[in-house]
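Student: Send me a single protein entry containing the residue sequence and its fold in token form, directly below this note:

Tutor:
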Amino acid sequence: MTPVNPWLEEILSLVRKVYEAANAYDKYTPGDELRLDYRNDYLLAQLEVFLPLIRSYFHYEVFGLEHVPKAGRAVLVSNHGILPVDGFLLIYAIKEALGRWPKGLTDRRIFRIPVLRQFFMDLGIVLAHPQTGAALLERGEIVYIMPGGAREAFKSSRDRYQLMWKRRKGFVRLAMQTGAPIIPAVCIGIDETYHVFFEGYKLSERLFGKDVFLPISLPVGLGPLPLPARLTHHIGKPIRFRYRPGDAADPRKVNRLHGRVMESMEELLKRGMAAHRPEPTEPAADVAARAEPPADRQGGPRKTDRPATTD
């Protein structure tokens, strides 16, 4: 019998240990995606240790936190990049500023991916479903949704900052049914963390049909790591309305409110992109100095007294 090469044996041993550790960590059982009260506070406390590093890497800033309510229900919506680190950063920014932890809603497919599903659950994220969203809002929670979903996340870099929300109106109906204001937010820079050469879902659907599980994508960064793009969140004023819960069944009223949200999002994107890109006549050194102000003493996201972008 041919002896196994020592280095190959070491690699196989490491793979076994990683596999066993992953199995031990992933405790998901069907139905866990509906657990509204679950959150792994111990893990979240450990993750906070890495916050200063992540914020520094992405030069993270957030404007408009004053538009997030200190109490009461709200539907927070934002654009979706291929690496949802922006959502992670925004949730912690809201926690630090207001002491609130927004509850994320995510796609059913996430709960079919071992380890990743457990990590999402540990963050307090639940299945995106009208019942889960309504239950959380009735309890006075902030529900965080990226309506564009994975299709928007895996779009080609040619379509950077294009919102794929035309048919995504469930969040509008959810807000109407519960009377929750809709808070628009955009993250500028998230579509620059990787360069994506083609639209992942379009290719996979051509090859395997409409019911594909995952897209075929080729994101290029610093190897597997994201590029150190500057990430900036802009949060707009809450969009309030006078519709009744039953109006969520009226397509015209849903479309009208959806249109208001889209207008607000496009305006936030426009203003955010204008602030993100330096003026052509401005010296590069001045732009760099202005773009990276000193961090506050707590090392958190920089706040501002200037008016936030609004709808």
Notes: The CA atoms of residues 125 and 266 lie 26 Å apart.
